């Protein structure tokens, strides 16, 4: 059993806001967690992809008003955009009667429309929370197999599959469903095969600097079209764009973002890697591990954290820079080695940015000092240092 560590944070938001939006890609565990939260109080669950549940909302104001004493869980809420105005009216009416929290839990598998609609319609009434697939802390606490998590990724059905073959087949179906059904339903008119090729190209260059012109040449489209494809996958919470850390060091900085497919299991499926042996024998192994670590650290970081990478034309480079407040500027190097040694570029970068702490995250579990204030540290302990989300 994998216990979702974010449940207390979500319940805390429900106690302080009339509506909470739980965002995340499909199959990341939003519905399961919402139903668990609903079991602890009076609640009602509606799946807006179900015709029967959608029919109940033919007169949404009447139906929802009849359940005003319950927590109403609305799944795939972006499928019914007209509901947001109704929710605003019901929330305001409830506030006049003294109910200011614990009213609606909205689940959305894409941030594009949900964020747009809710920010405009429910401003001041809604809190946002992104629920990712299982993270490394949850997995290590529940099962203890980080390599399995790295190989299969964090989507529950993929991670918990009986074997690697079943896990890979689930991810293949997941990718196909997104390309052939989910993305077209959101409106963008992108050929499924073109988007698959683009997604696969990103996986091949996991963590690489974005070169839209070169990718566009490979796809036979313009650079602006590549940017549109990238925006789509970022908005769907499937790809992360890590921006350069802006510094006043006076050095010539790399300005292009680094691009990561967020779930490591999806990276491996896009590249046809099914087993750990396949993965470790592939050139992507190092960059896949780096992306895996970065994604988990950013999931663990507080919402106010600022993140980026540092790279100059002279070769100074840090994989990840995190700032979580005054006196907490951290330079983080990532190495898949039990004897991690940062490159010269890391030390040059530290001379430039002067971080408050320096870490190298490696696959081991022991935390120990190296030199010049640098510490080797395991991934889950590094996540714990970043602290729980508020």
Task: Describe, in plain words, how this protein is organized in 3D.
The radius of gyration is 22 Å and the shape is globular. 46% of the residues lie in helices and 17% in strands. It is of the alpha/beta class. Helix 8 crosses helix 14 (264-270) and helix 11 (192-204) packs across helix 14. The chain has two domains: 7-130, P-loop containing nucleotide triphosphate hydrolases (Rossmann fold), CATH 3.40.50; 136-386, Arc Repressor Mutant, subunit A, CATH 1.10.10. It has a six-stranded mixed β-sheet with strand order 8-9-10-11-13-12. A five-stranded parallel β-sheet has the order 2-3-4-1-5, sandwiched between helices. It has a two-stranded antiparallel ribbon with strand order 6-7.
Percentage of residues in strands: 15-25%
Output the CATH class name of the largest domain.
Mainly Alpha
Number of domains: 2
**Architecture of the largest domain in CATH?**
Orthogonal Bundle
Task: State the helicity in percent bands.
Answer: 40-55%
Report the structural category: alpha/beta
The oligomeric state of the chains shown is single chain
Mean pLDDT: 91
Round the Cα radius of gyration to an integer and report it: 22 Å
- In one word, what is the shape? globular
The end-to-end distance, rounded to whole angstroms, is 24 Å
Q: How many individual β-strands?
A: 13
InterPro entries: AAA+_ATPase, AAA_14, DUF4143, P-loop_NTPase
Organism: Magnetospirillum gryphiswaldense (strain DSM 6361 / JCM 21280 / NBRC 15271 / MSR-1)
Protein name: AAA+ ATPase domain-containing protein
